[in-house]
Amino acid sequence: MSFDSLRIALANAVNDVFPGASVAVYKDDKLVYEEAFGYAETVPSRRNTSIETLYDLASLTKPLAASIVTARLMEEGLLHLKQRVSEVLPEYSATNAGHDELKSRTEIWMLLSHSAGLPAWAPLYKLGKSSREELLEEAARSFINCPPGSNVVYSDIGYIVLTAILERVAGERIDRLFEKLVAKPLGLRKTVYNPLSHGFSENEIASTETDPATGLPLTGVVHDENARALGGLSGHAGLFSVSKEVGLVGNQLLQAYLGKSDCLVKKATAATMLSPWVGDDYCYGLGWQVYRKTVTQAFGDLMTDGRAFGHTGFTGTSICIDVEQKLVAVLLSNRVHPSRENNKIMRFRPVFHNLLVSSL
Which of 47, 133, 153, 335 has the smallest CB count inside 10 Å? Predict the structure, then answer.
């Protein structure tokens, strides 16, 4: 296999699509390609990136942390997917207008598959709440826009509510749950929440958007405003990692699906997560979007229809798992540095994945 065409495309994307990027590819249970391109920061200084540079994963936190932690807790008997959310969070049945009987029918799987009827987003960070617990409760009290389980609306709020559920049933914060249930079993050393508090320096982390308050880019501080208000600790955003370790998590999930390893989750659990739960063309499993050739844009044209699963992140990140091709593709970038206005990553992602598959 030759990655020359892919390498050229990535090099040409520097300073156009993103300042910097890191790529990792697993094929047939082996890391077959890993390389970094461009810069971890261009403003106010210029720093090169490397394969050891940590990137803000943004919404890749959903499948890699929240979804897998949910699966592990399910395997331990602490929750089940058709359990009503209000059984764990009684406050979920409430809204600012009082008890909501329709909302009380929401089940945990609906949060994972973006079908709970919750809004896509809300500026929780602007509410002026003094504690993380108050913000989690405010998310739980959100109004729903349609009957639970009836429609797919991608929702950060749903995963913030899921964070509260996981922490309530396990009695531990999401970062500690991730470390215990995902990072430690896989030997991950560079996949963490709040990397600056784990001994990483700013020089080891790719910068994201310039903070208007300081005029300096965010480096090691989560880009997502709601996650930042939650202390950097949420199931919807907050993880930082390197491309090789993101790929390792994806590969272990793939190996579980194929029945070749259960060090992360069991085969039946992986099959449950990586199967369609809701939606037709725009279809979700539990934490993962199901690839549909005629609809899914980000992962190009050559992944296996209905047998590939992926996710993207606002900061310019993505992961795709193709179970038929036994392939895991990871692209991490800081496309929001120094500004989120550059969104050429939307055009680049399908080209990246087409070139990758064509290289194998």
Answer: 133
Give the total residue count for the chain. 360
CB atoms within 10 A of CB 108: 25
Question: Secondary structure of the chain: what % helix, strand, coil (to 5)?
Answer: 35, 20, 45
Q: How far is CA 254 from CA 26, 27, 271, 306, in A?
A: 10, 10, 9, 15
CA distances from 31 to 252, 253, 309, 339 (A): 12, 15, 19, 32
- Return the ∠ at Cα 80 (arms to 77 and 170), rounded to 5°: 55
254, two tokens: 């793939």
End-to-end CA distance of the chain: 5
* pLDDT tens by residue, 10-54: 999 999 999 999 999 999 999 999 999 999 999 999 999 999 999
Residues 6 or more apart whose CB falls under 8 angstroms from that of 61 comprise 227, 234, 235, 236, 237, 238, 239, 313
Model confidence pLDDT, tens digit, residues 173-185: 999 999 999 999 9
pTM reported for the whole predicted model? 0.98
Q: Which amino acid is located at 241 in the chain?
A: S
Q: DSSP alpha helices (H): ranges in the chain?
A: 4-13, 61, 68-75, 85-88, 108-112, 132-140, 156-170, 174-178, 184-186, 225-229, 243-257, 267-273, 345-359
